[in-house]
Amino acid sequence: MYIEKTPLIIDTDPGVDDAVALIQAFYAPNLDIKLICSTAGNLGIETTTRNAIHLCELYEQNIPVAQGLPGPLYRDLETATNPHGSVHGKMGFGKYVYDGVKNSPIELPAYEAMHYALQLYKGTTILVLGPLTNVAKLLLEYPEDAKRIKTIVFMGGTKENVLMEDNPYPEFNISRDPEAVDIVLKSGADIVIIPMEFGHNAYIPQAEIKKLKSINKTGEIFHTMYQDYKDGHVKDEDAATHDSCAIAYVIEPTLFKLEPVTCEFIYRNDKGILVSNLAKESNIKLAIDMDYAGFKNLYYGLLSVSKTKDE
Ligand code: RIB
Ligand code: CA
Question: In the chain, N or C: fewer CB atoms in 10 Å?
Fold first, then answer.
């Protein structure tokens, strides 16, 4: 049966939930991943680059990895930490560790690699699972690329309009490079936003995490990664699924209900929030609902067909 494949660039800061999303993307029959770009976010750029390369090696994916900028466009990098240290564990994969990687990132920096991939592959979607730094850099250097990108899908911000709250929560991907958010929102590109509420509501509970081990090698890896992943909005023993929700949209858009919105970035306490308001029509769409049962089916379906190089 012929399945039309979506050419896809994934920009990511692996990170536990990024790792789960990347592995899911590797096995989605309707995705053709042309390029993976590392971005600084959950951890520093060296770690996120190495982690992205490791996953490609572990799952024998012949996908080029391009290294992103070392930090936000105009400010210092603040990685994802909590009182225990890194939200994603010391090396970004919870308690999962690996020796090292054989391959290096390609020569081109992420934004240049994106630019060339957009020339080569018409109708390419860019999925951003971390701060928007690399995509903003692409659009600064090549503004005409906004029209070459089919859709920029990014995980970030909140569904609820928190503008009136005294101290609204600064969602990580949006708040770590606010200037990049502004550039992307104003670029004219078609954008879909998958806000953080979905990753919190569609958390993997401890009871399910325990069972992951017995499914296959990937389930065992997810279980180990989840042991030290503390999102802060879900119980420590549960696992948020932010980036899996974002890749689920790219794989199966019908799982989501979108609404056109006007969307602006508002600075708060030197961080910031996304403020979205419903609009009659807009190039920016916000996901406002998800089929949670369908999401879980996709999560376990892709998990069950994944195979590491050692299996
Ligand atoms: O706020 C959640 C987002 O920030 C996720 O993409 C997580 O991986 C971190 O990058
Ligand atoms: Ca991420």
Answer: N
102 has a pLDDT exceeding 90: yes
Bridge-based pairing state of the strands 191-194 and 256-266: unpaired
Choice from 173, 176, 233, 241 to test ligand 1 binding pocket (greatest atom count within 8 A of CB) = 173
Torsion of CA 306, 237, 202, 65, to 10 degrees: -40
User: Is the CB of 18 inside a 6 Å radius of any atom of ligand 1?
Assistant: yes
Identify which of 17, 79, 176 to mutate to test ligand 1's pocket (most ligand atoms within 8 A of the CB): 17
Residue 34 has pLDDT above 90, yes or no: yes
Dihedrals phi, psi of 171, to nearest 5 degrees: -55, 140
Does residue 173 line the site of ligand 1, with CB under 6 A? yes
For 310, phi and psi rounded to 5 degrees?
-90, 0
In this structure, the chain runs to a length of: 311
What's the confidence (pLDDT) of residue 242?
98
Q: With H, G, I as helix, E, B as strand and everything else as coil, classify residue 122.
A: coil
163 has a pLDDT exceeding 80: no
Q: Is the CB of 42 under 6 A from ligand 1?
A: yes
- What's the CA angle centered on 123, arms 66 and 288, to 5 degrees? 90
pLDDT beyond 90 at 44: yes
Measured in Å, residue 211 CA sits from the centre of ligand 2 at 24
Is the pLDDT confidence value at 205 over 80? yes
pLDDT of 200 above 90: yes
Q: How many A from CA of 72 to the centre of ligand 2?
A: 14
- pLDDT for residue 87: 86
